[in-house]
Amino acid sequence: MTLDPITLSVIQAGLQQVCDEMDLAFSRAAFSPVIAEANDRSDGIYDAADGALIAQGVGGLPVFVGTMQYSTRTLIAMIKEGRAGAPEPGDIYIVNDPYLGGTHLMDVRFARPYYRDGALFCWLSNTGHWPDTGGAVPGGFSASATSVEQEGLRLPPVKLFKRGVMDAEIYAIICSNIRVADQRIGDVTAQAAALDLGAARLDALLDRYGDDVVAAAIAELRSRAAAQMRSFIDDIGPGPHRATAYVDSDGVVNEPLEICLSVTREGENLLFDFTGSSAPCRGPMNSVRATTLSSVYLAMRHIFPEVPISAGAFEPLRVTGIEGTFLDARYPRPVSGCAAEVSQRIAEAVFAALVTALPGRVTAAPAGTSGNFALGGHDPDKCRDFVMYQLSGGGYGGSVMGDGLSNGCSTIGISKAPPVEVMEQAFPVLYHRYALREGSGGAGKHRGGFGLEYEVELRRGAAQASFVMDHGRFGPQGALGGADGAVNEVTVWQAGVPHVPVHLSKEQDIPLAPGDRVCVRTPGGAGYGDPFARDAWAVAEDVRLGRYTRAEGEALFGVVLTGAPHWKVDESATTLRRLARTET
Amino acid sequence: MDKRQTGQVAGIDVGGTFTDLVQLDAKTGSVRLAKVPSTTDNQAHGVIEALAAADCDLASLDLIVHGTTTTTNAVLERKLSRTGLITTAGFRDVLELGRRTRPQPYGMTGHFTPIIPRDLRLEVAERVDASGAVVTPLDEAAVLATGQQLLDQGCISVVVHFLHAYANPDHERRAAEILATIWPNDHITMGHAILSESREFERGVTAAVNASVQPILARYLTRLTNELAAGGYARDVLVMNGNGGMVSARTVAREAAKTVMSGPASGVMAAAYTGRLAGMENLITYDMGGTSTDVALIRGAEPAVSNEIEIEYAMPIHVPMVDVRTVGAGGGSIARVNAAGLLEVGPESAGAQPGPICYGRGGSEPTISDASLILGRLNPAQLAKTGAIAPDAVARVFAARLGDPLGLDVTAAAEAVIRIANTKMAGAIRMVSLSLGADPRDFALFAFGGAGPLHAAALARELGLPRVLVPARPGITNAIGCVVADLRHDFVRTLNTPLDALPKGALAEVFATQAAEGDRLIDRETIALSGRRYLYSVDMQFIGQTHLLRVDLPGPSVDNATLHALFEAAYFNRFRVRLADIRANLVNANCSVIGARAPLDLSTLIDPSGRRATLDEAEIGRRPVYFNGDWQNVAIYWRDHLPLAFQMPGPAVIEQMDTTTLIEPGDVATGDAHGNIIIHIGGLCHDA
After folding, report:
1. How many domains are contained in chain B?
2. What is the rounded distance in angstroms from the CA atom of residue B172 to the CA atom of residue B180?
């Protein structure tokens, strides 16, 4: 069947609409703030035969762009091999096993077979981040776990709903193994209802255009998305384009983990070779295969946002060399850091490798850490235990377009941080500072954005502070002569005495007493291009606004300023200062 | 107070391009209209010119209601008054850090400029905790010193924004008192006074917007009222607020942030009013202009109001405003063939400048309006009057840019552009209505703006809406909104209490206080009213949830069991889910007090003397128009000649000064007693 390009566009928009409506329904009905507010979820449509991604909601969490396709593929294979029950109409499978196409245990996938006239037409699937799935620490982000069993309950694909009815026994097992189980039913119904809504909307689309036409359109769109991605790949030189990125440590063994990437164009495809990356680690900074692939895809989508999210777009992107490395961890390696931290470092490696080849498209490295600070303890005034999460942003990298954004959210996320006032309402803490971290943006022709600096005090009771962050040892990488962004810094003040975690960005269960404080300074974005080529008056403006000191303006950018507090550029002194560097 | 009435009311809306005026004489039914170019430097000139163009006798006017984009433009173009911020020590960067976001999900670039620059954001020692208890007393000397410093830096407006001031406003009040001793004007905004809710970024930005536009609005209104008084106008000028109600020009600047959505709100109020008269109380308003399309929802003739509008990236203005959502498609949206060989329309737009090719202002990219011209839907002769480009020239661009790469001829390419644009707009309208908790099929489409009536029937078909309502004057809907608007005051009180813990009668008590305050404000106004309406609603959620669901209440006294039942019903209606074991939280109590104006007859908006007796006599010619792969010789009607009652099967084109209405094959247009056109969509509507 040949389809005209207009029908194709209309069906593409229709499939996209189904996914966007699933995203909306899931978020609006969900109970957990992590889904309802932070949109830590994603919904999509997948091929019946091979699980390939047909369409995915635009508002889905970026790190899920590639994982759900992988997860659906694995499910289809397991059904074929008899390792999972055969699908029937109205069934919904639940699975959170990281090694079967996932991320960390908290990302729980639902998959619903979709039938037309008794035959499987496609799969509808979604992922939602549950606030807890059991394990050693509330929330699941243990910085020192050494096996997946310590991280929580692991579910292989089982039918939570059988022919439209929830299996109360499976649900009872889940509820007996997770914290705050009484509210989970709200999320479960929201997650299932989103898939039901998707099925109803897909019915309407197929009724309107015909099953054969839509099926043909799906196949055609897949090959066109591949062609679109290939047309962009055409602009990339053959390479190899190399980069290395570092994870501070795995949280258990205090040594950096290395991501070695070499990107080459081979014909129409782009080959991402990770050979030489570190071996699987003892602590939770392992990535699983699905997350590694997804991180490459999301990085490429950040570079080419106009390519629709579909299997076709990923087809020309080939990932190799991850076997035997910490980017393809196998059971029982702990993996809680894969989605929040390792994924961002993989994306950074992709950016760093391609920025020279695509200087108009790629930015210098962003802060690239989710900045996960958890405080668990007991609040004597409210007579209850609490777990508080402070996720924080950092600076983005400079780009050909201009300076990086300050306090942007993680590369793999899209969520807002909670306000200080809401945190203080809910938890026994008082913030002393929530401020722009001066001087943190990496110098460059276009400088990096600035990180965040906050200081928070425990007011009463007792609590333990835990950190799963990164970029404490190495700042986000500068590009094309730009400087690195500032490194992440954590200081815990216990009875007035400063404590810096041995792993810099990771530590678990640091005891806090009332009056103790936690101070976090998040990374700045990296600089893009030679700082000495920066417009001198832009440097004067930054100094006038207190973002850099006058001395930094001179040392980092070669700009000599006079006349506080308005600051003017001393043009001739600046020229001499900048020339002096060129000559040496 | 003098509440004498002459019955003469003028509504004046200043838009981006034109200033529109409608003057209604309630006693004689006579109508005067004027459309003059807006004067961007001082909008008052355009207003005075519009009054002169309509030959209004200022002395005999009973009331002038004014919709203004003064504050909207100031915010969007960042032409703001120099404003300083005094805030809690440690928190001056809250306005710059935002909530840790980025402009788009994909693409690590983007830009954000805080509304007050860093050197004008100063800190003083003070701290209140979440319970409202003072942790650090206010450093009063520091307030004085920082205030003086801001004055020295040239600020003419100032915001006092302290953490947790919604829980305890004492420090903000005291600081404002101190500042008042040195500040040379009354442009002092306290954060809690504009919005008394937690979330320091949103409250701070709302207050900062208020302070930054207050001097601009105050200066403008002073100039305007002086000029009107010089012309003999003796009454108060009322200004349209973003909530769709009017407020006196004497007091509106105090809460200037509320006028930022003044223009769009007037359009939605006109839609609600027109719909109520026409017996169509559930409407989706669809205002399509050159660069964008505004969409809003009206249920039971009441526009949906939101307290959480973000007017651009990271610019939340959290005061009650008519919930108008902007969709990035307008007549100027650009069509192109992408690298996958697929046709895309938007999001890039040629805007008003250079605009579509056919406007002849230098545009060279194919747009939606150009496609309408090629298909014969827009009148080439009418465009030619304004120095436009000939259709052949437009067709050549379509052939080269779209037709050749897609393998289509020019007409097919133009039709494809319209089809893709309509699919995208329909999808966006669907998302807007769903996110507001409505199934679009329960609504009629109210089409206005220059391009709305051209696309409305196709969108309605796509969305499954049975009817389209095209008002008499789609191009001056905002000015009509001013004429018909009521006085309105909105109140929000955060209770955040589990329903089971809410004492009996507590909610009714809150509502009574809110209603009394609304009555007090309305009593102060000098205009005559026909009655009062009180709207009560609550925002609720299941305990553990973060999203709120608004539940409209039948009256102020509702017992807790009924509240829970109403909430469960609304929740089921919305999500098809019942959660019997989970209890509910009552978060906000909302009350709106509306001073209703006497009803106005809108049937004279089109001069009745121009009406012809039959449809045939209203026909002004025929021209080929392209529908579904075929050119058809279609009758063209002049709107002002249409009889009040008529039945017109499509295809047909109805032209008028300010818009073109397209009746597609299979649809039927009828006229109603109020001068509206109702398009009955073939296959969806069975009452024509």
Report:
1. 6
2. 12
Which of B94, B96, B100, B318 best tests the A interface by mutation, with the highest count of A CBs <10 A?
B100
Place of tokens 């499910």: A75
B124 with B238, same domain: the answer is no
From A10, A33, A399, residue closest to B423, measured CB to CB:
A10
Residue B605 lies in a domain: no
| A324-339: burial string, b at 16+ Cβ within 10 Å, e else | ebbbbbeeebbbbbbb
**Is any Cβ of chain A less than 8 angstroms from the Cβ of B582?**
yes
**CB-based contact B102 A433, cutoff 8 Å:** no
Quote the CA–CA distance of A448 and B27 in Å, as a whole number.
66
Kindly tell me if the per-residue pLDDT of B450 is higher than 80: yes
**Domain-embedded: residue B435:** no
pLDDT tens figures, A537-564: 999 999 999 999 999 999 999 999 999 8
Domain ranges of chain A: 5-228, 363-533, 535-583
Q: What is the pLDDT of residues A182-203, one digit of tens each?
A: 778 888 999 999 999 999 999 9
What is the Cα–Cα distance from A500 to A502, expressed in whole angstroms? 6
pTM (predicted TM-score): 0.91
Question: What is the Cα–Cα distance from A316 to A233, expressed in whole angstroms?
Answer: 9
State whether B316 and B350 are in the same domain.
Answer: no
Distances, alpha carbon B124 to alpha carbons A327, A430, B115, B142, B196, in Å: 49, 17, 20, 6, 21
Partner residue opposite B101 with nearest CB, options A16, A409, A419: A409
Interface probe with A: pick from B87, B94, B109, most Cβ of A within 10 Å: B109
Query: B303: domain range?
Result: 262-321+442-483
Read off the CATH number of the domain in which B133 is found: 3.40.50
User: CB contact, 8 Å: B101 with chain A?
Assistant: yes
Domain assignment present for B430 = no
**Which residues from B are below 8 Å from A409, CB to CB?**
100-102
Pick from A16, A62, A391: which is nearest to B105 by CB? A62
Contact call for A420 and B91, based on CB within 8 A:
yes
B542 touches chain A (CB under 8 A): yes
Of A507, A577, A434, which Cα lies nearest the Cα of A142?
Answer: A507
Residue type, A41: R
Which of A393, A294, A391 minimizes the C-alpha distance to A339? A294
Shared-domain flag, residues B95 and B188: yes
Q: Can you say whether residue A110 is alpha, beta or left, with left for phi > 0 and alpha for psi between -120 and 50 degrees?
A: beta
Domain co-membership, B478 together with B498? no
**B207 shares a domain with B93:** yes
Q: What is the ipTM of this complex?
A: 0.93
Which chain B residues in 409-438 lie under 8 Å from chain A, judged by CB atoms? Answer: 416, 419-420, 423-424, 427, 430-431, 434-435
What confidence score (pLDDT) does residue B388 get?
A: 62
Decide: A68 and A125 in contact? Cβ < 8 Å: yes
Domain closes at, from B565, B596, B627: B596
The answer to whether residue B20 sits within a structural domain is yes
Q: What is the Cα–Cα distance from A100 to A289, expressed in whole angstroms?
A: 9
Residues B300 and B365 in one domain: no
Say whether both B466 and B491 belong to one domain: no
**Same domain assignment for residues B129 and B244:** no
The candidate with the shortest Cα–Cα distance to A32, out of A342, A377, A387, is A387
CATH number at residue B460: 3.30.420
Tell me the percentage of chain A whose pLDDT exceeds 90.
82
Identity (one letter) of the amino acid at B352?
A
B580 touches chain A (CB under 8 A): no
Task: Return the half-sphere exposure (C-beta side, CA atoms, 13 A cut-off) of residue B214.
Answer: 26
Contact B93 A434 (CB under 8 A): yes
Name the minimum distance, in Å, from the CA of B687 to any CA of chain A: 24
CB B457 within 8 A of CB B684: no
CB within 8 Å: A5 and B581: no
Between B92, B108, B546, which is nearest A37 by CB?
Answer: B546
